[in-house]
Design brief:
The complex is a heterodimer. Chain A has helices at 3-9, 21-59, 65-74, 81-90, 92-105. Chain A contains five helices and no strands. Chain A is mostly helical. The longest helix of chain A has 39 residues, at 21-59. Chain B is an alpha/beta fold. In chain B, 27% of the residues lie in helices and 10% in strands. Chain B contains seven helices and six strands, in the order ααβαβαββαααββ. In chain B, helix 3 (114-126) links the parallel strand 1 and strand 2 (142-146). The longest helix of chain B is centred in the N-terminal third of the chain and has 18 residues, at 22-39. The interface between A and B is medium-sized, with 19 and 12 residues. Chain A: One of its GO terms (molecular function) is rRNA binding. Chain A: Binds directly to 23S ribosomal RNA and is necessary for the in vitro assembly process of the 50S ribosomal subunit. It is not involved in the protein synthesizing functions of that subunit.
Chain lengths: 122, 241
Amino acid sequence: MNKDKIFKLAKGFRGRAKNCIRIARERVEKALQYSYRDRRDKKRDMRSLWIERINAGTRLHGVNYGNFMHGLMKENIQLNRKVLSELAMHEPYSFKALVNVSCTAFPGNKAVPKKEGLSSIL
Amino acid sequence: MATTIPTSAFIATPLRCSTGRSSAIWVQKAQFSASSSSLGVSLSLKRPSLRLVSVRCETNGAGMPVIPAEERWMYEESEINGPDIWNKTWYPKAADHVNTEKTWYIVDASDKILGRMASTIANYIRGKNLATYTPSVDMGAYVIVINAEKVAVSGQKRSQKLYRRHSGRPGGMKIETFDQLQKRIPERIVEHAVRGMLPKGRLGRTLFTHLKVYKGSEHPHQAQKPIPLPIRDKRIQFVKK
């Protein structure tokens, strides 16, 4: 790549990396490597952000993310995590309905209260 | 009508009905001129100048201006249908995390296990309890801790847990036990615990400033009307054996 292209890509770099070709060439190469790697990382990061948001949204209703997703899978609800996180933020009542659906399908690991005496036979 | 000006001529300039009323007023004037020219009489002279004309753009139900089908190519998707919330992950705008509108929580630290309390506090300060959590933005709440000198630890930690600091010079390590530090500066114990649980970095340092720890049961933040921090940890109360 010629110098003009390198300097165009080096806009916003710190210090001599935006002005001097020897340094800019190295930094631009590195920047392109990082952007290649991060285009793949971005997909992972976004998914983990959606999962964190869904987790927070479900915990407001007393359910954690794992049990919630298990319940959804059992009911064969194929909404993806992106949409679920947007629902949790913008459509709280619809999200509560989804949490209810998941709870009926999979009540979670709530400890079953021990029945005492004769009621344990029932 | 002798002069048939198509309706699209009114809206030929970029529609900014939501932002400025100037374009809307322009629209109204054009309609005036069209009607008056078609009748051959300038009606605008006869209308009283103080009449209130409600200036409103044509909108559809969602509050977005209506764009006729011929002009749709001129505008971007977000201008026609509004911002796309389902295909782009939401990122908070500045108005979504104004410090003055954040909730304030209050915790009484008496007989609470230090680490468990600090963990809940850090979660609320960071904003991880909200569905709008964003790691790069401060979406969390403010937390006030009172009675910090009464915070409890289990086991032998009261005499054995060490707090170290170093002045930077050789031989400058200072070591204190939990109870020595509690006698000296009790707030520092809770602050140290929460700071260790917040992210380390520029954002983490600003988050730490949202924690307010006080020694007694008085705090100067009554005006913020703090609500009690909801703690779901069942083992947070210190049980004396």
